[in-house]
Write a structure and sequence with these properties.
This protein has 254 residues and is of the alpha+beta class. It has 9 helices and 7 strands; from the N terminus they run H-H-H-H-E-E-H-E-E-H-H-E-E-H-H-E. The chain has a 4-stranded mixed β-sheet. Helix 4 runs antiparallel to helix 5 and helix 7 runs antiparallel to helix 9.
């Protein structure tokens, strides 16, 4: 009886151990480990967006563009001649940027560089370009850069001024500096200003200072070019040192 009882106890313990270990005594498979979530898709490369931007620009017949500039030459010269009626020593170099749409129209244009020093002449030239019918680009809108200029004539050339004379005067004119800063607010790019300075209209050279006769602007970006007239309006009343008995020409960056 004692041996039979011990055997029954051993069998019971063995069965309990099997149940506690969770082995697949009944042939059931072990629980599966849950699958990891698939990784999030990678963001598109920045290069892809840049390529999409570049694809907006097409090609344009450069020879046809050159012929158009030659066709417009007389009208451009008219703008310059009108400028010389106001500023007898008007001279300088310029470079324009044109954005031509698929229909051959100027979407926008501005002076990237200009040392003419006369905004009215610059605007006249831009209007000539805007009214012209340009070659139609293929595959998208086109970008055109074109340079030109005029040298001095037989008249006496203005004296050359250093930019510090204007910057110093601007630093001392809080209200005008505030107006200039308001024009520049939020704008990416710089303004390259060229101007002619003449004695004040009171005629007393010794006692008077100077003032701007005319100003012109080259802008480094489209956004800056849109504020060119604002800059000219802000600067036009700036009081300057006297250039003496004759005009001076100065270039400075804002």
């Amino acid at each position: 009886m004692k041996c039979a009882s011990s055997l029954a106890i051993c069998i019971a313990v063995f069965c309990m151990n099997m149940m506690a270990c969770g082995t697949s005594a009944a042939g059931e498979p072990p629980p599966r480990t849950p699958k990891a979530a698939p990784p999030a898709p990678a963001p598109p490369l920045a290069l892809q967006s840049e390529l999409e931007v570049e694809q907006k620009f097409g090609s344009i017949d450069e020879r046809a563009v050159d012929r158009m500039f030659l066709t417009l030459q007389n009208k451009i010269e008219e703008c310059y001649a009108q400028g010389r009626e106001r500023v007898s020593y008007l001279a300088g170099d310029a470079k324009v940027f044109l954005r031509i749409d698929r229909s051959g129209n100027v979407r926008y244009a501005y002076f990237e560089e200009s040392t003419l020093g006369d905004r009215e002449s610059e605007q006249c030239i831009l209007d000539v370009f805007a009214r012209a019918e340009w070659p139609k680009p293929q595959g998208g809108e086109a970008k055109v850069h074109h340079g030109f200029g005029w040298g001095p004539g037989d008249e006496r050339a203005p004296a050359s001024w250093k930019s510090e004379k204007v910057i110093s005067a601007l630093d001392g004119a809080a209200s005008i500096r505030k107006r200039v800063d308001a024009c520049k607010a939020g704008v990416k790019g710089s303004f390259n200003v060229t101007a002619y300075v003449i004695p004040n209209a009171n005629g007393n050279v010794a006692a008077s200072g100077g003032e701007f006769q005319t100003l012109g602007i080259g802008a480094s970006t489209k956004e800056a070019a849109q504020k060119a007239d604002c800059i000219v309006d802000a600067l036009k009343d700036l009081k300057l040192p006297s250039p003496g008995s004759y005009a001076a020409k100065v270039s400075f960056v804002l």
